[in-house]
Each structure stands twice: as structure tokens, then as C-alpha cells.
Amino acid sequence: MLAYTIRRLLMLIPVLIGMSLITFSIIHLIPGNPARVILGDQATATAVANLEEQLGLNEPFLIQYGQYMLGLLQGDLGTSIRTNTAISGDIWPYLAATFELTIFAMVFAVIVGVNAGIISAWKQNSWFDYTAMVIALIGVSMPIFWLGLMQQWVFAQELGWLPAFGRENPRNPIESITHFNLLDALIHGQLDQWWTSFKHLVLPGIALGTIPMAIIARMTRSSMLEVLRSDYIRTIEAKGSSTLSVIYRHGFKNAVIPVLTVVGLQTGTLLGGAILTETIFSWPGIGRYIYEAIGNRDYPVIQSGILVIATMFVFINLIVDLLYSYIDPRIKY
Predict the structure, then answer these.
(1) Tens-digit pLDDT profile for residues 97-115
(2) Treating both helix axes as pointing N-terminal to C-terminal, what angle do 87-122 and 191-228 enclose, rounded to 10 degrees?
(3) How distant, in Å, are the alpha carbons of 128, 131, 142, 223 from that of 134?
(4) Which is nearest to 134 in space by CA: 219, 214, 225?
(5) By C-alpha distance, which of 200, 202, 206 is closest to 165?
(6) How far is CA 20 from the centre of its chain?
(7) What is the CA radius of gyration of the chain?
(8) Which of 99, 189, 259, 330 is deepest in the core (most CB within 10 A)?
(9) pLDDT recorded at residue 119
(10) Do the Cβ atoms of 98 and 278 come closer than 8 Å?
């Protein structure tokens, strides 16, 4: 297992280098001059040229990329052109907010989707099966922005059960340690603030997790149907094992790998694709951070944000690969 893990980690090196080069290249193709954006349209050509020299924007592309990679190897993501602060210090609170939202959304998606898929396969062609698959189809087809707005209207405006915007109560903010609000509230022993933060998570988390939930439910059903028709399942049933043991212990264990693939891909997708949800619910996540940087032509923030998200996607896939080898030891050979 250790040798397999080391091999997979070594395979990540060229992937990460290629990813950094592509990200750096695409960002520099964005129209507009960052120096001109910072100084304004009334700035003189001399002032713009001086700022370009100060920021290193007048250097050849390969030199700029080399300086960027040298900084990355030292843990430096660069400096924001707009705020003139280190990106490595600014980006973590936004990234933590997106992580918290993504984790909540995926927990919701996995719990609901997996169990709905298992029951649908077990009760194939029943009313539950048809209902669950229709809901899953609607969930895949439903735009996130529409679902988010409907949630705000029903549960926040009409019923008043849940907050519609933000991450916490602005009048009673949580003192940040890890920037994960639920964890920070527990560390401080503030259960009322924990409950407030949890309520802020519910609407955006469900909106973000609806599509993954539907995909996981459909994949789980498909995989479980194939496993439940296997000869070894019929043998286990003939031995008198309980239904729950047959389905969860023997059936789902052998059907979990395709489901795990979907969970890994959807987690990575949510990390980079939560910008609509974060905008609708005013969630201070990495998506909004990058979106605002694009409007300001803040190249270092854009490329660092995209690179961080892409790196997380790669490592999530690595974790999924390692889980494959743990569940099915044949894979690492």
C-alpha cells in the first residue's frame, strides 16, 4: 500500500507542473492591462510603464512563469495587485468557507443519494423506486440559481425558518481560529453560535448538493442492481442472512467503487463550481473571491485561486484512488 501511494504521489508532480503552466498561460491571455486598471484610464503612459516594471509585467513570459514557480516552491502564491497583500494570507478564509459549504453539501448528497439509490434497487419497480428516480431526474435538471431563489422565498421569506444570506450573524460574529465557523464555535464552546452557523449552511448546502445527490442516487441504484443479481448474493440470502446484512454489508461494499468515483468527481466540481451558490446566498467563498479578482484584472489572485482549486481537485482524485485500493486490494497490483 505504501509503495502504491508513493507511486501515485510521484505521478502528481508532472500533472501539477502542467496545470500551473496552463493556468498561468490562460490568465495572461485575458484582455486588459492590470497596471492600467489599477491606475485608471486617466493615467499617463509613463506611470503605466513604471507600474508594469514594478510588478514585473514587462518581463518575458517565461521569466514571469519562472519567478511564479520559484515563489510557489517557497509557498508564496504572490501578491494581490489590487490590495498589495500576500495572497497566501488572504485566500485561506475564503477557501475555508467554500470547504465548509462543500463538505456540508456532499454529506447531504451522500447520505440522501446513497440510501435512496440502495432502497430503489432493493425495491425495484416499486412506487418508491419510480418516485426516487423522478426526483433524481428533476434534481439533475434543476438550475441551482432557481432552486436557491425558491429556497430563499419559501424558507426564509415566507416561513422565516432559515437565514437567506451570509455565513453567520453579523451582530455576533465568531472569533476565527480555523475559519471553519462550525469548528470555531465548538472550540469556543458557543453552541448558540454553532446553531446559527449551521442554519446559515442549510439552504446553500442543500442547493449546492442537490445535483450531486441526484447523480449519486442514480449511480448507486444502477450499481446495486447489478450486484444484487449476482450469484453470491443469492447464496448469502439462501444461508438466511438478514436483509440489511445482504444489502449493506455484502451488496453495497461491492457496488461502492462506481459510487466513490462519482463522489470524488462531484466534490472536486463543487469546490470550483460553487460561485452561483455563493453569489445567491452571499457566501464569502473562493468562487466570489476569484470572481471579484477577474473584475479587477488581479492576475495573481485569479491564477492562484484557480491553481489552488485545481490542486484540490487532483488531491481529491488521489484520495479516491487510494480508497479504491483499500476497498479492492487487487487495484494496487
Answers:
(1) 888 899 999 999 999 988 8
(2) 50
(3) 10, 5, 12, 18
(4) 214
(5) 200
(6) 19
(7) 24
(8) 259
(9) 86
(10) yes
Q: Position 162: which residue type?
A: L
Q: Burial code of 182-209, b = ≥16 C-beta within 10 A, e = fewer? A: bbbbeeeebeebbebbeebbbbbbbbbb
Q: Are 314 and 15 in contact (CB under 8 A)?
A: yes
Identity of the residue numbered 269 = T
Fold entry, domain 93-332: MetI-like fold (1.10.3720)
Helix (H, G, I), strand (E, B) or coil at 86: strand
- List of residues 6+ apart from 208 with CB closer than 8 A: 101, 102, 105, 144, 270, 274, 277
Q: How far apart are CA 194 and CA 213, in angstroms?
A: 25
Query: In the numeric block, which cell numbers belong to residue 211?
Result: 445535483
- The strand ranges marked E within 104-167 are none
Phi, psi dihedral angles at 254 (to 5 degrees): -90, -10
Longest dimension (CA), the chain: 85
Helices (H), 30-78: 34-39, 45-55, 61-73
How many residues does this entry show for the chain?
333
Domain ranges of the chain: 2-73, 93-332
Mean pLDDT, rounded, for 316-329: 77
The three grid cell numbers given for residue 22, joined into one nine-digit string: 496552463
Whole-number pLDDT of residue 44: 75
Give tens-digit pLDDT for 167-195: 877 777 788 788 888 888 888 888 888 89
Q: Are the CB atoms for 303 and 24 separated by under 8 Å?
A: yes
